[in-house]
Design a protein that fits this description.
Number of strands: 4
Strand content: 15-25%
Radius of gyration: 20 Å
Order of helices and strands: HHHEHEEHE
Number of helices: 5
Distance between the termini: 23 Å
Helix content: 25-40%
Structural class: alpha+beta
Shape: elongated
Length: 155
């Protein structure tokens, strides 16, 4: 269900997307509104599920992980097999993000985080062995560094 938000809500969301640890007091100083109003607005945004959670930004490189995007071109001749592939991808613990869309460089976009190139290739080979007629080809891109992460389309 779509909901409307006003300028104050948008400003709160903008600042929280930059730093989810901002307190209502810090937000109120930046926005120049009362702390109580900011706290009420945040609670309302959480209640109506505009804010679904708060996530940390984790430096995967320090932890020894490499972040890849995989573009898969898929032969969708069997809807049943496609649903099985989609389920396997969604259930895999390496997957950070996946989307099927129109206008992508491929039929499906997947983001994974792995400890080694071998782990990446094992992941891809597992899919190619299990679904040999479906996966036509793939392209991988390695992310070196996330320079910007925002979770809102405005601002």
């Amino acid at each position: 269900k779509e909901t409307q938000i006003d300028k104050l809500d948008k400003r709160i969301l903008q600042l929280l997307s930059i730093n989810a640890r901002f307190s209502p007091k810090e937000l109120s100083l930046n926005i120049k509104e009362k702390e109580e109003l900011i706290a009420e607005r945040i609670k309302r945004l959480e209640r109506i599920k505009v804010i679904e959670g708060y996530r940390p930004l984790i430096d995967h490189i320090i932890l020894g992980y490499t972040w890849y995007k995989i573009w898969l071109n898929i032969n969708k001749t069997s809807q049943k097999a496609f649903k099985q592939l989609w389920k396997q991808i969604k259930d895999d613990s390496l997957i950070l993000y996946t989307v099927e869309g129109i206008g992508l460089p491929a039929d499906m976009e997947i983001e994974v985080m792995v400890n080694s190139n071998q782990e990446l290739f094992d992941f891809i080979n597992k899919m190619r062995i299990r679904f040999p007629a479906m996966i036509e080809d793939y392209t991988t891109v390695m992310f070196i560094e996330a320079l910007k992460e925002l979770y809102l389309p405005f601002y």
